[in-house]
Design goal:
The protein is of the alpha+beta class. The chain contains four helices and four strands; from the N terminus they run αααββββα.
């Protein structure tokens, strides 16, 4: 009986020691990936583009505004209904620089999409791509 209690005591001691090592190693791995891992490497690949409100707050002025409505057939199972795409194009100016913002509303998906860029061509391509994909 005495030998059994000694064996159990030794096993519990080694088990505690093993769990302590595993805990320490997992903590170090967690800290490493949190601060030096993948999260930081992707942050600069996709910089956030400003939206219309942010640009106006930074002193950009709207100098031109256009509205456009595109009517398409709905996507299944609503192909018999009209799908309206409402697009607002904003041209902003600050000193000698221009910025363009497109705001699109898709009636079928009931979604508003806003894109801003210094190049108007990029936005037109993006809007057309979004319309075709949705």
């Amino acid at each position: 009986m005495k030998n059994l209690s000694v064996i159990i005591f030794k096993l519990s001691y080694f088990t505690k020691k093993a769990f302590k090592k595993i805990s320490t190693i997992s903590t170090i791995i967690f800290i490493f990936f949190t601060f030096f891992g993948m999260n930081q490497s992707n942050a600069n690949k996709y910089p956030e583009m400003p939206n219309l409100l942010e640009l106006k707050r930074k002193g950009w002025k709207i100098i031109e505004k256009q509205k456009e409505e595109i009517i398409l057939n709905g996507k299944p199972p609503y192909q018999n209904l009209n799908r309206e795409i409402l697009i607002e194009k904003h041209k902003l100016k600050k000193t000698n620089s221009f910025f363009f913002c497109f705001i699109a509303y898709d009636s079928q998906s009931d979604k508003i999409t806003e894109n801003c860029s210094p190049r108007e061509e990029d936005l037109e391509k993006k809007i057309i791509k979004n319309i075709k994909n949705k």
